[in-house]
Amino acid sequence: MVRGKTQMKRIENPTSRQVTFSKRRGGLLKKAFELSVLCDAEVALIVFSPRGRLYEFASASMHRTIERYKTSTKDNIRSQTVQQDIEKIKADAEGLSKKLEALDAYKRKLLGSNLEECAIEELQSLEVKIEKSLVSIRARKARLFEEQLAKLKQKEVTLRKENEDLQGQRKNEEQLAAAAAPVAAGAAEQSHPQPEEEKDEMEVETELFIGLPGRGRS
User: Fold this and answer.
1) Strand, coil or helix: what is 139?
2) How far is residue 187 from each of residues 63, 73, 179, measured CA to CA in Å?
3) Which domain, by its residues, includes 30?
4) In a domain, 50, yes or no
């Protein structure tokens, strides 16, 4: 009797589903054991029944096999992540390179180079953009001139104020010097009085009589 091919879908009958689970579970555990023995493979099998009962098989330590699985999975995920990051960086670099090339070509056109490839519409668009740029440049230039002029005016006011302060300070110094001159002269005269001896000598000199000795004054 030829067995028919089992259709791969959920068995609706609970009894048939439980019988099929028991048979296939035993065959699965047997195959796992045979694989570990025949091929010297590290096999770990975990099965939960529809009712939540655990069935397991491990050719070595279940814990060691699970840790080995985690490490291998983590390394694979890390490797895949790194590879994805590399691919993304390459794609971003290619995109940026293309954008830089496009910007460089556009800049050359704005400067008047490589215009042979441009159609009339593109030339008109370039002309409009250049005119707008000139308007912005002139407006910015005018603002800078106004700012510089305002700074120069402010500097002029500051210099005038400093000049006025210096002139006022100079006048005050001249007035103080003029007022102090007579006082200094009087102090100099008082500091050099005429000695009494010199006065006596002058009086003696005025009483001298020049003539023959023995004769008095006539």
Assistant:
1) helix
2) 115, 109, 14
3) 14-60
4) yes
